[in-house]
UniProtKB/TrEMBL annotation:
Name listed for the protein in its UniProt record: Acyl carrier protein
Organismal lineage: Bacteria, Pseudomonadati, Bacteroidota, Sphingobacteriia, Sphingobacteriales
Superkingdom to which the source organism belongs: Bacteria
Transmembrane feature ranges: 129-147
Species per Swiss-Prot/TrEMBL record: Mucilaginibacter glaciei
Keywords of the record: Membrane, Transmembrane, Transmembrane helix
Amino acid sequence: MKLNLKSTTNVINLNNFDAEDIGDVLLKIERSFDINFADTDLKGVKTFGALCDLVVNKIKQHHADSCTTQQAFYKLRNAINAKNPVDRSELKPQTKLCELFPRDNRIEVVADIEAEMGFHMNLLQPKQWIIWAFGSLLLASIVLTYFFAIAGYISGGIAIVGLILAGKFGKELKVKTLGDLSEKIAREHHLKCRRDASTVNRTEVNQKVKELFADYLHVEPSVLTKQAKFA
């Protein structure tokens, strides 16, 4: 399930993205909208606009005009209240997550809310310097293996274990506010955020697909035009 992005005249150059990264985004789209791409589906996709059309056509839920991000906010607010009752007037889109999720027990609090909501929010991460440190060690271990195999394998193992533990016990927030988190889960778990899972707002789908690509590939949504080419 791979697509390569290709640039043409007057279209942003997207052909530098790795096919594996594109495949990862496609998996996120499948999970968010509860659809599956067959290899035959993707063979006919030549533009980003065509991919969005394919996603819309694969969605079987009935159309409803309600805003999914708003419903995600209400679902998140209810989950927070279920675990730690808070005056609803204090839970606003601009409410800072660092105030809702104290650092001391942040991992446990987030896990409880995820259990209440029924999906993983992918909200926490380790400090960036920790990722860089173990990532650099892993790269160094690969080089070291060519000269001192045992030392390379040991350092590589340490780096991998370190990255796994860092990911498991990281406490840094990926987004800052309750509104940001609502937008995040609305694009990553679109149908699960809907009040009625048998409905979907089809007018939102193209934008959510664009946001998934932009977020994962770290590009501005504006560059993901309908004319952007897949090759």
